[in-house]
Write a structure and sequence with these properties.
Helix content: 40-55%
Distance between the termini: 84 Å
Radius of gyration: 47 Å
CATH class of the largest domain: Alpha Beta
Number of strands: 17
Strand order of the largest sheet: 2-1-5-4-3
Number of domains: 5
CATH superfamily of the largest domain: Histidine kinase-like ATPase, C-terminal domain
Number of helices: 16
Largest sheet: 5 strands, antiparallel
Oligomer: single chain
Length: about 550
């Protein structure tokens, strides 16, 4: 046992010593290479100055111990070389250090020299006349460095090895002696430590159990993170002090905080007082509930205490985004109010006319007028109810309507034909042009889009005006365009024309009729076809609405 420990310690010490030697050699080699290059650069600068002053004769008298001097023309031709006949030398324009010197004024490199058959360091300077003076020297090798300091290295290595031997021996004895002093029944098993087998087996068993438990915990944590991460609701788990234990993406987005919040008190991360109150209520053992608005988004908070026995161990905070729900409720309230108002108006007219007729107050010659009024308002009410039913159907997704391949140009022509009499009565020229384009859609809804857009182009126009329908393909898109030169839409109103019961010119709308739901039907029908609607309008000049499929 002692020998094994000794060998291990000595091997480690020897490896460390060897690694240190290699590392120190590498560092020294790098240091001496840099020093050698610095010295070579200084010699090159001095040679360049001398050559600038005295010319080529300076090179003949220059003798730098161990160095090779080369003078090169700007085109790479060797003008002078201290170790070779320049006439037989190849062009040096492609040498790295020469290229650098010609470009920047100074260049340096290190490579194997085919002329001298050894690895060289090169330093080059450009002269004022464009020529380059270059000095090279043999680069130190690691072996040269090692041989240069072989004596002190051997001495240090021997001392280190001797010291490691002594330390290894002492440490091995120190480790083994306590074991040798143990009362062991079977001395022949000392080497393998059989007495420790039950302990090591138990440790191994516990370690395996811990690994399995760790794997199970990791699996459950991953499952929990996957579930909570995909939730649209915000979820925050807190300990009994109110510090964040876990938080999902929806909650970090809602609270505008990052993952750094783990371990921090939730009450310090938000300035919303109702959130803090709700959390404190849950930590006190009660269920908390509140409504808050963060960043323009409405949330419903539900905080529940998490108990362990008789004490509160933490709390769970759930954040539900109720913005769309509230908007939907608001829209429903507004829609109901608008429907009630729109239905009451024709009913009042019908009721009033009928009452006058029933009481015999109306003159005989005025009876046809009152009957016409009753008929007109009845038609208006029927049209309104039909549009309301259509919108309700569209809100439900129109799941019962079948999609099929239809020719959009044919639909446009058919609907224009249905409105031709209305256009003629209004003095508006209704035309259809374009190319035959087949798209996959719901024929009834596509017809409703064309009909309502054309109907508006006729109603909100002037005698002598035009309403033009065009169907065309642009790249991968199919465009349906309805253009008119009617009354137009003010810029501030263009974003609201698709709202239910919204009318730009209410007085004009009363005159021409209409339910105020036509463009809402267009919007919902386009949405079911994943189509986009764009509006371009100038007051008193006309409107162009484009539906892109």
């Amino acid at each position: 046992m002692t020998k094994r420990i000794f060998r291990s310690i000595f091997t480690v010490a020897a490896v460390i010593l060897l690694a240190s030697f290699v590392l120190i050699t590498g560092v020294l080699y790098e240091y001496f290479s840099n020093k050698q290059m610095d010295q070579l650069n200084m010699q090159t600068h001095l040679a360049a100055q001398g050559l600038e002053t005295a010319g080529e004769s300076y090179l003949d008298d220059l003798d730098i111990d161990g160095c090779r001097i080369t003078w090169i023309a700007s085109d790479g031709t060797v003008l002078y070389d201290s170790r070779a006949e320049q006439s037989g030398m190849e062009n040096h324009a492609d040498r790295e250090e020469v290229r650098q010197a010609l470009k920047t004024g100074h260049g340096e490199s290190m490579r194997y020299s085919t002329t001298l058959m050894e690895r060289q360091l090169y330093s080059a300077d450009r002269l004022s006349d464009g020529t380059v003076v270059r000095i090279s020297d043999t680069q130190y090798t690691p072996l040269t460095l090692i041989l240069g300091m072989i004596q002190p290295v051997i001495i240090i290595a021997l001392l280190a090895l001797l010291l490691s031997l002594l330390l290894s021996s002492r440490m091995a004895k120190r480790i083994v002696n306590p074991l040798n002093e143990m009362s062991l029944d079977n001395a022949d098993k000392i080497e393998t430590y059989p007495e420790l087998a039950p302990l090591t087996d138990k440790l191994k068993s516990q370690q395996n159990q811990l690994r399995e438990q760790e794997k199970e915990l990791c699996r459950r944590r991953d499952e929990f993170d996957a579930i909570t991460g995909s939730m649209t609701e915000g979820l925050v788990l807190l300990n009994e002090q109110g510090s964040v234990l876990s938080i999902n993406k929806a909650a970090t987005k809602a609270l505008n905080i990052g993952s750094y919040c783990i371990g921090k008190d939730i009450r310090t991360l938000s300035e919303e007082p109702r959130l803090r109150e709700t959390v404190e209520k849950a930590l006190d053992g009660e269920h908390g509930e509140a409504h808050i608005t963060l960043g323009g988004v409405s949330y419903r908070l539900y905080a529940s205490p998490v108990t362990s026995g008789d004490r509160v161990a933490g709390a769970a905070l759930l954040m539900l985004d109720t913005t769309e729900k509230e908007k939907g409720e608001q829209l429903r309230r507004e829609f109901s109010a608008n429907v009630s108002h729109e239905l009451k108006s024709p009913l009042h007219t019908i009721s009033g006319c009928a009452e006058l007729l029933a009481n015999g107050i109306v003159k005989p010659e005025d009876v046809p007028h009152f009957l016409s009024q009753i008929q007109s308002e009845s038609k208006r009410m029927i049209a309104l109810i039909d549009d309301i039913i259509k919108l309700s159907h569209l809100d439900e997704g129109a799941e019962d309507m079948q999609r099929e391949n239809v020719d959009l140009l044919s639909i446009a022509r058919r609907e224009a034909g249905n409105l031709s009499q209305a256009a003629e009565d209004a003095g508006v020229a209704l035309t259809v042009s374009g190319e035959s384009v087949v798209i996959n859609g719901i024929p009834q809804l596509l017809a409703a889009i064309v009909h309502n857009l054309c109907e508006n182009a006729i109603k909100y126009n002037r005698p002598g005006g035009f309403a033009r329908v065009n169907v065309r393909r642009e790249g991968a898109k199919t465009l349906l365009t309805v253009e008119d030169n009617g009354i137009g839409i003010p810029p501030e109103e263009q974003q609201r024309i698709f709202e239910r019961f919204y009318r730009v010119d209410k007085s004009h709308s009363k005159e021409v009729g209409g339910t105020g739901l036509g463009l809402s039907i267009v919007k919902h029908a386009a949405a079911l076809h994943n189509a986009k609607i764009s509006v371009a309008s100038v007051p008193d000049k006309g409107t162009t609405i484009t539906v892109s499929f």
